[in-house]
Amino acid sequence: MSIQRLLLAAIAFFIVFTPMLFLDDGYFEMGRRAHIRAVFTQELMDEIVAVVRKKVATGKGFFTVSEDDLPRQVGELERDDLPRQVAELGWGFPVHTSFSHDPATKQISVSLVWGGSLISRHGLDISPVPIPFHGYPTYGGDDDSVPHYTQKFYPWLKNGYIMIDEN
């Protein structure tokens, strides 16, 4: 009888901790990715990019910044700008929405972020430029020369990346 209990406990441990041990992933991260997959289709992502294109065409709702002497138009999306489906699940509307437009290439990037400091952040980045899995490095902490990677980007549909922030 005790061997059966021990075997059952080992199986339960294996089921619960397998994602964390072998995939560097947990059920909480899987749930946040499932939130994005349940809501966003290719058509919905294309609709959001079309909204940004209209904003850029009107010349309102953004400002121009220069990065490496190249102008970029950046702005935030309002609740009314986003399709109703974005808030259909329990997470509601994103807490932070932003977009970027490169006038030279006409490329548009959109970032939708849910969560905050208590539950960490997750979201969807729509970008024609490929985003590396570990995102982009940040510097700080004890040694400013050592890069830290706190985000993971999982490819989702065309030009879509599910972002999980471990901060």
Task: Write a structural description.
The model has no long low-confidence stretch (mean pLDDT 80). Strands 1-2-3-4-5-9-8 form a 7-stranded antiparallel beta sheet, covered by helices on one side. The protein has a two-stranded antiparallel sheet with strand order 6-7. The chain contains 3 helices and 9 strands; from the N terminus they run αααβββββββββ. The chain has helices at 2-22, 27-39, 42-58; strands spanning 63-67, 70-75, 96-102, 107-116, 120-126, 138-140, 143-148, 151-156, 160-165. Helices cover 31% and strands 34% of the residues. With 167 residues, the protein is α+β, with helices and mostly antiparallel strands.
Brief rundown of the structure:
This protein is an alpha+beta fold and 167 residues long. It is built from 3 helices and 9 strands, in the order αααβββββββββ.
